[in-house]
Amino acid sequence: MRNPQRSDRGTMAAESPLLLSLVEEFVSGLQDSKAKDTATAVKDGQFTVLQLVEALGPSLTSSQPHTRARGVQLLSEVLQDNCGALTEREVELLLAFYENRLKDHYVITPPVLRGLLALTKSRKLPPGSAVSMLRSVFQDVHVQSLMLAERACVYNMLINLMESREDELKGLGADFVFGFVQSMDGERDPRNLLLAFQIARNILLRGYNMGKFTEELFEVTSCYFPIDFSPPPNDPHGITKEELTQALRAVLTGTPKFAKFLLPLIIEKLDSDVQSAKLDSLQTLAASVGQYEHRDLAEFLEGLWSSLRREVFQTSSEKIEAAGLAAVAALTSCLSRSVLNSDSEDSLSSFLGLVLRDCKHHLFEPDLKLVWPSAKLLQAACNASYRAAHSITSAVVPPLVEQYNSRTQCSHRRTLLEVAQRFIQSTASCQSVDHDESLFSAYKDSLCSLVFSALSESNSSLQITAASVLTSLAQQPGLLLDSDIELAVDHLTRLLLTDEDERVSVAVVECAGALAERHPAAFITKLIPTLKKEMLSDRRESSELHSHHAVRQRCLSVLAAVSVQASVVMEGAPILLDVLGSAHADPDRFSVDEVVRACLSLQRIAERVQDGEDTSRCFHDVIVPRLLSLALQAALQNDGSSGRRSPLVEEEVLSAMVPVISTTFSRLQTFAEQTASRAVSLFLDGDVSFLPDNSFPPRVQLLQQQQEESSWRQTQLVCLLMACVCSLPRSVALSQEERLLSELEELSCSCRHPFSYTSAAKCFAGLVNKKPQGPSLDSLIQGVIKRVSSELDRPSSPLRTQAFTLLIWVAKALLLRYHPLFSVLTDKLFTLLDDALLGPMAADSFSLLMSDSADVLNRGCHADVRIMYRQRFFSENSAKLVQGFNAAPQEKKANYLKALSNIVNKLPKQVQVSELPALLSLLLEALTCPDEGVQLSTLSCLQPVLINPPQVLVLQLEALVSRLLALIGSPAMKIRMASIRCVLTLSRFPAHEVLPFRSRVLRALAPPLDNRKRLVRREAVQARAEWFLLGSPGGR
Amino acid sequence: MSEGHQLENANPVIFQRSGDRMVTASEEDEDVHDPIDDREIFLIRSINDPEHPLSLEELNVVELDRQVNDTESTARVEFTPTIPHCSMATLIGLSIKVKLLRSLPDRFKIDVHITPGTHASEEANKQLADKERVAAALENSSLLEVVNQCLS
User: Fold this and answer.
1) Segments making up each domain of chain B, as ranges
2) Window from A70-79, A507-516, A705-714 with minimum mean pLDDT
């Protein structure tokens, strides 16, 4: 194309040859990149916009529309980058030019719009220009016949102007809304819809005058409701259906003026068969009524209610049911909020009237399906406001009580009771501060008598429900009186002592715990003395020995449950100590199991009690010394003539005491330091002065191994020392730490009793973990490494296991705190994988390294645990492990595989998935390893990865499937079950990947259907059912 | 089963679900042989009703009262439609049969029929007893689709 104006060029060339050549190359040469260059040149001040316009003159006045369009395009693109620098006068001129150009040929419109959009961003926009600009656009442009990008231009102009010139636009009055409605009418692109919805939302929220165009604005937006949009695959714009739905919902629910259009639309869409349309309608309804008043709703209440009722009564999905209930609650709370005029009818009560009319009678047919949907609807309404709750409870609770009394079948009564409980719970949220009287105070007596009569029934599920009703009643502030609580305690005590059903006792214990938290007094005066009598009474002679054990167990757990308030703890905890004391005094009286349970109850109390001076004193001055004293007495005692030894020397019991003590030290810190130093001097110097019942010999040496046969009894007490000193906060300094450490090291390396040397190693490790960084710590660790290595390097040494135990615990202590010397210990550990005797043990020990230990070296006992230590360990050592595996002789390979699966098993899922590609071949290898332990741990680490399979796994599917199917025939049932479970997970892989394996898997799963073990059959049935559904119509 | 039209039995009687079977010590013992028993066949309780979002157990269509004999390899299941004219009876029976075919070893002979006297027509019994007809029904993909939905 030749430029006919070319001859004019000479007159302006003098000003800027660069500018002219840029214009020339862009307009005639059609080189789009020159626009950018021009914009940069303007920005750099090489020439001004004015000069550009002058240089463009010939193009802009060309007789060829395309040349004019090119000219305008260059100007617009330059303005996009430079509109900030324009003066008001320039903006005005440019606007006038652009507005005028809108009337030009249609090919010029797109660049004009782009230029106008650029100008809307200018802060120098002269007053009145926004109005004139929009008038021209609305008048001269038919937006929907423009291309996508130009339509977006118009919307963005509107958005910019709404931000900067709100007042002027409002001056346009309803014309603005009308112009917008016309512009967006028929918009189809989701990107533009998001912009259009944003404008519509602004119109509503910022109070633009819609005049007579309210309905038009509603129509032009609501025609997209409910949004049906599925983004194309690989959509680069990333617009989701959810985004569009939310944007549209914000428009539709933006103003009460839409109510009369929106509500009929929702009623209509609720009839739809499409689940997502229903859900969207319900959610939109719930969102819309937030701004409505009762007037807006009045005429649609009946229609809305019948749709909502249908959705809940005949629901096919829980989501829709929940959305329906939320909508009922929203409607009710909207109606409750409205202020009533004297002449309007009370629409809340008429709505609740509808709800009660359709739901109430279903409540009294407790064996039919609709009882629950009806109860849920009523409760949703109840939840909404105090007023609604008041009128519904007064209509429902009295007849519920009456029905309960007139029914005789237990299952009916239980349903009625459950319904009542839901009502009590559902009102919990609307009991506001200004109504200090509970909604249920009028019915308290009848509900209490209902509960107490149900508790007296023999039907266990009725009792369980009654216990939870009681809990709910007790949670209503100020509802139950002391006399009610006392009666309740009587009932609970009776059930506890007489009822054999385990589920009942669980419910009773839970209920007692909840009640005791609010009403401790009745429990101290009534329940605790009874429990004490029951637990310490001696009924060995009686015939009901077995049931007495069960009663004692229940007493122990209820004692733990009710001891939350300090006042109850002070009464309850000593009883548990008495149990331990009498178990020691008379070994036949309590079984080891019961003693362990007593410790467990003490532990639960220590975990839940509030930290205060009283409780701390109780634990540090009474409970811990008493425990230590009892354990010491048992350790020093010789087996009596009866031949029965005290249960307090059993490893199980001592292990159960450990968490009691360690929880005390880590949670109740007021006297912790003092007690810890007493414990240290007890163990180091035999100082028994702080223990009660002081009849001990003067020099007890607990950390020295004696020659006598029974010295393990004393050395094993080191586990209690560990509980005392390893749970302190790191800030607390320990007295005589150096001496303690060296005695612990000695004991752990030389003792022959496994529990003793392991506990000593753990205690040593716990202290090392908290010891401050520095040369003294380094030399301590070096010393341990030297000692342990010399022991481990002598294959004939009888103390290698001890040395290994200390090695692994110290390694763990250092791993947790990222100590640099850790790598020396890991290397030692890796070399042990090849050791003939310790190899399997070393492989197992990786699981100990990677998992949290319950009694020491965890965050609960204030250990120094860095985040992500597992990942760090893995990333530093996995390569060594793979290397070692490849170099190891065949018979040692299993150790490496086991170590690897122990490590991978404990890694967080995300790390597993990201690391899997590198390790997959090794893990697949591990599945064929004959060692059952390796198979099992590999399966258990594969299974979670299979739930969200990484691509590399899909590529290895053939190998994986055949290995898993082979393991289905394993002789060990656990492996059979785990492999079938993995096969089940495989069925959820992308269907096209696993479909080729379908018939093979189904065939392989047939034999385990006839397996001799029921648990294996159960897994097989489940997996086979899923695989049958795969690729089958109606399945997956 | 579109939402619009009324269900045949909109407010049926609901029964309680039984809990999951407790795992016993002997079940975890490798050396004990656990025979296939009634409770194990009762996995059919979790089949969905074609109309309601409820299981067959909750509608009391099936009960834990059927005869399974592991040594003789037979399983007999009776089911009770919620109403005597239930049009879904055959479909429910077919779902039970398919579930059992997929879950029991090959050696079992499976007999599924309506509890005598609880349904207007006993035609369904004949259809369910006829191997050929059951096989043919499962070739029909729209029927298989409904059955699979009940089973998933």
Assistant:
1) 38-151
2) A705-714
> Which of A271, A316, A1034 has the CB atom closest to B4's CB atom?
A271
Q: Which CB contacts under 8 angstroms, 24+ apart, belong to A224-233?
A: A224/A193, A224/A248, A225/A252, A225/A265, A225/A269, A225/A280, A225/A284, A226/A269, A226/A272, A226/A274, A226/A276, A226/A277, A226/A280, A226/A281, A226/A284, A227/A280, A228/A276, A228/A277, A229/A190, A231/A190
- Over residues A412-425, the pLDDT tens digits come to 899 999 999 988 88
Q: What is the mean pLDDT of chain A?
A: 87
Q: Are B23 and A1015 within 8 A, CB to CB? A: yes
Q: Is the pLDDT of residue A12 over 50?
A: no
Instruction: Read off the pLDDT of residues A455-474 as tens digits, 9 standing for 90 and up.
Output: 998 888 899 999 999 999 88
Most A CBs within 10 Å, among B58, B148, B149, to test the A interface = B148
Name chain B contacts of A372, Cβ cutoff 8 Å: 14
Select the more confidently predicted residue: B64 or A333: A333
Average pLDDT of span A877-890:
85
H or E segment and range at residue B69: strand B67-69
Q: What is the pLDDT of residue A436?
A: 61
Q: Taking residues A315-340, report their average pLDDT.
A: 87
ipTM surpassing 0.90: yes
Cross-strand bridge partners of residue B110: B75
Which residue is it, tokens 């040494």? A797
* Chain B CB within 8 Å of residue A976 CB: no
Contact A1021 B144 (CB under 8 A): no
Decide: A1002 and B103 in contact? Cβ < 8 Å: no
Q: Cis ω on the peptide bond leading into residue A226 (within 30° of 0)?
A: yes
Is A157's pLDDT higher than 60? yes
Q: How far apart are CA A694 and CA A99, in angstroms?
A: 104
CA distance to partner chain B, nearest, from residue A1020 (Å): 8
- Kindly determine whether residue A1009 and residue B104, on different chains, have CB atoms separated by under 8 Å: yes
Write down the pLDDT at residue A660.
93
Task: Kindly report the nearest CA distance between residue B133 and chain A, in angstroms.
Answer: 19
Determine the residue of chain B that is closest to A1012 in CA distance: B33
* Predicted structure pTM score: 0.76
Which of chain A's residues have a Cβ under 8 Å away from the Cβ of B10?
313-314, 370
CA angle A131, A136, A138 (to 5 degrees): 95
Chain B interface includes A274 (CB < 8 A):
no
Residues A572, A555: Cα–Cα separation, whole Å: 11
Give the three-state DSSP class for B136.
helix
Question: A369 at the B interface (CB within 8 A)?
Answer: yes
- Nearest CB to A1033 within list B30, B36, B144: B144
User: A630 CB contacts (<8 Å, ≥6 apart)?
Assistant: A580, A581, A584, A648
Q: How far is CA A1027 from CA A999, A1030, B25, B36, B121, in A?
A: 9, 5, 30, 22, 35
Q: Does domain B38-151 have CATH number 1.10.8.60?
A: no
Q: What is the DSSP string of A526-595?
A: IIHHHHHHHHH---TTSS-HHHHHHHHHHHHHHHHHHTTSHHHHHHHHHHHHHHHHHHHH-TTTS-HHHH
Inter-chain touch B106–A1006, beta carbons under 8 Å = yes
Report for A536-540, A619-623, B22-26: range of highest mean pLDDT: A619-623
Mark out chain B residues that contact chain A at CB-CB < 8 A.
2-4, 7, 10-16, 23, 27-28, 30, 33-34, 36, 40, 43, 52-54, 99, 102-107, 141-142, 144-149, 151-152
Question: Residues A635-650: what's their mean pLDDT?
Answer: 75
Residue A602: which pLDDT band, with cuts at 50, 70 and 90?
very high
Tokens of A844: 């197992």
Whether A625 contacts A690, CB under 8 Å: yes
